[in-house]
């Protein structure tokens, strides 16, 4: 028995030794596994060599573009095994499950965003696997694969059951649920915490509002030192108190026995501001210029600042810069000698003293635009996205076809990247060492044949890249919605003239800032999309700018394209359809430009931005006369060819003058034509309008006329265009945004409902006066001097005009013929000189009807 027990003890010791050895071997194996995990993670994260890219692509099969997160976690697990020698088992199962739910929801959301961007609605896993296989073949990580195959399978299920928005909702809920499971915080605790945060924010806002209200009350109740009158007794109330007794605020009842001014304020927080505004606006009537700046009505009452409407009572009394002493229900005025004027308006400067009505056609805001609401994108129709999944599946096939075609012609190239755009797919091709770019360009027709494409365009090279771009038309063209581009347009506060044009090949929103271009030329054949682009530009301006910020002058010889914009408050005058009147309108725009420069000189500024900044600085001081900011002026010509045929010289001269120097004055041109020939788009017009948009044209000659290069003849039409702004060496291909006529009408109806049109009557009268203005404009530049000369000499002949002004015979003969048409001279009498029929009064009445007649010495020339 003793021996048996002894043997049993020896076997027990031997078994313990075996178990300890087995445990050491397990720890040693886990250390090796941890080292391998860490090494694979490092190779995948840093993409070292072919093996690193291969491992990264393996991770991307499962988790897609979030592979760095998975690789990092994989490496941390490896380090854990390497250091501690056992699997991490300290994390509770609930928290681990919460992390997994958050990660899967992230993969699902990433996949939904990816396919929504590509407008793909089927075969999700097939598309992702095609992209992954391409990366495996290349041995690189280049293509985006969203959430990998895991996200693809999840998205296939949720899209079938819940569509796009349902998938987004499920993904967000999954993230929230996973976070709650990981943190182990009860849901009612989160609700209580949110309630406490909301209550604290509300208390802070109320306290801040009470402090601001107290500061505002103290600020407006105290009289200004410069407005106090030592002659008034201390017990007399100040002007703010007397004016508060003189009118009712927010539509309150008014005693008819009092002389009252009824002020309706749309914001109750402006009560104190109203007192100050009325004080400021009534302190400027001592000088004529300040009186005109205060916008007096027919009853003699000045209008307060913008921000509230003023309704004057029939028995209202005029308010002047006088201290007011109440006696009963009436107000007794005591005159004061104080005057207030704008700091940069000299009283002796005739330009600065000119009233706003006479200073220009676009600077007279007669309406209150403080409550003007800009149209929103909700008024626009929603265009469903186009399914381009078939185009995605064609990309790999076309890549192989391109490489094989180049190889068959002995050209060593490699297709690096492809971008699926709305209209075309752009393949980026990298030429091999020693391959000339011309070899690739010369194979355009052969490539189109191999790809079975209508036509292809080769961009050699792509600006900023060592690649050649090959643009292949899509079989399924995606429509770019104006609502989509206006909603996704990058917001730049203060840039009211930045308009979205459409989408580039890469899917980016392309915008154009009219203040930087500063003029735009649009050309293309009939039906290519010019009129839609003009509607997009004008509608975008209407959605970003108020009528007092931008004024429009629309010229439409075709009579049907822009007439829908009649009666909107942004117009200076009704849409001009007569070519002769259009020449007058452009001439008036030139006059407005010159007038603005005179005002800049008087104010000591260089451009419209500095002028408006100085106006705002002036208006911020309550002691200065209120001034109006200068609005931008946009001149839109829908068909230049008709104008050039009817009044070519006058139109070209006005356009060139505006294009040369109108930028600083805030006047911008947008010119469109369907006949881009050199007799319409002349050299002077092209030289002064560097920003251009070319739609599809019929020949390379027309393309060179617009863009100075070929390429526009290969555009596909229906909004496919090339945009060449100032500063870019090569044009950018864009699919223009589409806006329907119904959407344009919705925006116009909304704008008309905000304000009524207020045309400039003087401008309309000038534009409608075709006869005299055009007669004078059609004459030679020496015509006036020649008329003055023959009136003084009392004789006229072609040779005399030729010698006097040193011009050619034909030109002098034309001047004599114009004189005969006007009635200055009689008909030809052979070798004798012509009889002069005009006298001093006729000359003065024709050229300067507003000026007094000349003196007896015959000094007619100005």
TrEMBL record:
It comes from the Bacteria. One of its GO terms (biological process) is chromosome segregation. One of its GO terms (cellular component) is membrane. It holds the Pfam family FtsK_gamma. The chain crosses the membrane at residues 28-48, 68-84, 96-120, 140-161, 168-187. SMART domains: AAA, Ftsk_gamma. This is DNA translocase FtsK. It comes from Lapidilactobacillus concavus DSM 17758.
């Amino acid at each position: 028995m003793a021996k048996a027990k002894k043997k049993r003890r020896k076997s027990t010791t031997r078994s313990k030794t075996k178990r300890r050895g087995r445990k050491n071997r397990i720890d040693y194996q886990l250390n090796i596994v941890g080292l391998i995990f860490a090494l694979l993670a490092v190779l995948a994260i840093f993409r070292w060599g072919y093996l690193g890219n291969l491992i990264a692509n393996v991770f991307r099969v499962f988790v897609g573009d979030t592979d760095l997160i998975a690789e990092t976690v994989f490496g941390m697990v490896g380090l854990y095994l390497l250091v501690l020698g056992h699997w991490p088992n300290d994390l509770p199962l609930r928290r681990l499950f919460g992390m997994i739910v958050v990660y899967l929801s992230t993969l699902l959301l990433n996949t939904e965003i990816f396919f929504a961007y590509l407008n793909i609605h089927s075969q999700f896993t097939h598309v992702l696997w095609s992209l992954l296989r391409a990366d495996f073949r290349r041995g690189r990580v280049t293509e985006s694969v969203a959430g990998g195959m895991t996200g693809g399978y999840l998205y296939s299920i949720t899209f079938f059951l819940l569509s796009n928005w349902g998938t987004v909702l499920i993904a967000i809920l999954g993230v929230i649920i996973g976070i709650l499971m990981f943190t182990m915080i009860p849901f009612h605790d989160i609700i209580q915490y949110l309630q406490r945060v909301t209550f604290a924010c509300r208390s802070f806002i109320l306290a801040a509002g009470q402090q601001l209200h107290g500061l505002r009350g103290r600020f407006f109740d105290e009289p200004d030192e410069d407005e106090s009158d030592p002659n008034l007794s201390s017990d007399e109330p100040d002007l703010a108190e007397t004016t508060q007794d003189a009118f009712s605020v927010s539509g309150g009842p008014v005693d008819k026995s009092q002389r009252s001014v009824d002020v309706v304020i749309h914001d109750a927080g402006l009560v104190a501001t109203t007192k100050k505004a009325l004080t400021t606006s009534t302190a400027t009537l001592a000088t004529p210029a300040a009186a005109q700046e205060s916008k007096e009505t027919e009853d003699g009452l000045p209008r307060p600042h913008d921000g509230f409407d003023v309704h004057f009572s029939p028995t209202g009394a005029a308010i002047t810069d006088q201290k007011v002493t109440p006696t009963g229900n009436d107000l007794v005025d005591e005159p004061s000698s104080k005057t207030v004027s704008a700091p940069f308006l000299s009283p002796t400067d005739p330009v600065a003293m000119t009233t706003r009505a006479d200073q220009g056609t676009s600077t007279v805001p007669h309406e209150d635009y403080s409550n003007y609401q800009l149209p929103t994108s909700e008024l626009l129709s929603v265009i469903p996205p186009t399914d381009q999944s078939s185009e995605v599946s064609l990309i790999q096939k076309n890549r192989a076809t391109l490489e094989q075609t180049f190889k068959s012609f002995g050209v060593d190239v490699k297709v690096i990247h492809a971008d699926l755009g709305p209209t075309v797919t752009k393949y980026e091709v990298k030429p091999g060492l020693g391959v000339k770019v011309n070899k690739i360009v010369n194979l355009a027709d052969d490539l189109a044949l191999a790809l079975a494409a209508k036509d292809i365009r080769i961009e050699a090279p792509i600006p900023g890249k060592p690649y050649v771009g090959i643009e292949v038309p899509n079989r399924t063209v995606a429509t770019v919605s104006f609502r989509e581009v206006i909603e996704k347009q990058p917001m730049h506060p203060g840039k009211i003239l930045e308009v979205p044009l459409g989408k580039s090949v890469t899917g980016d929103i392309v915008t154009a800032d009219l203040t930087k271009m500063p003029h735009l030329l649009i050309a293309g054949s009939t039906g290519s999309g010019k009129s839609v682009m003009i509607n997009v530009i004008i509608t975008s301006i209407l959605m970003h700018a108020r009528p007092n910020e931008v004024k429009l002058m629309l010229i439409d010889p075709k009579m049907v394209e822009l007439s829908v914009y009649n009666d909107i408050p942004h117009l200076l005058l009704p849409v001009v359809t007569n070519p002769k009147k259009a020449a007058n309108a452009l001439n008036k725009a030139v006059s407005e430009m010159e007038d603005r420069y005179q005002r800049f000189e008087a104010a000591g500024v260089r451009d419209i931005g500095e002028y408006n900044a100085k106006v705002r600085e002036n208006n911020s001081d309550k002691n200065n006369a209120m001034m109006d900011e200068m609005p931008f002026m946009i001149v839109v010509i829908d068909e230049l060819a008709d104008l050039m045929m009817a009044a070519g010289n006058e139109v070209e001269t006005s356009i060139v003058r505006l294009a040369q120097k109108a930028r600083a004055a805030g006047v911008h041109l947008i010119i469109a034509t369907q006949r881009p020939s050199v007799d319409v788009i002349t050299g002077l017009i092209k030289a002064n309008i560097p920003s251009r948009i070319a739609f599809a044209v019929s020949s390379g000659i027309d393309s060179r006329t617009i863009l100075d290069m070929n390429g526009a003849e290969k555009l596909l039409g229906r909004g496919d265009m090339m945009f060449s702004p100032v500063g870019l060496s090569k044009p950018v291909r864009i699919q223009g945004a589409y806006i329907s006529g119904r959407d344009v009408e919705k925006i116009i109806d909304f704008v008309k409902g905000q304000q009524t049109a207020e045309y400039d009557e003087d401008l309309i009268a000038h534009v409608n006066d075709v006869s005299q203005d055009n007669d004078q404009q059609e004459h030679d530049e020496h015509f006036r001097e020649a008329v003055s000369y023959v009136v003084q000499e009392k004789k006229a002949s072609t040779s005399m005009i030729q010698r006097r002004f040193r011009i050619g015979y034909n030109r002098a003969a034309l001047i004599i013929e114009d004189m005969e048409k006007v009635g200055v001279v009689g008909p030809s009498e052979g070798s004798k000189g012509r009889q002069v029929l005009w006298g001093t009064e006729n000359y003065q009445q024709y050229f300067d009807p507003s000026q007094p007649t000349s003196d007896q010495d015959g000094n007619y020339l100005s």
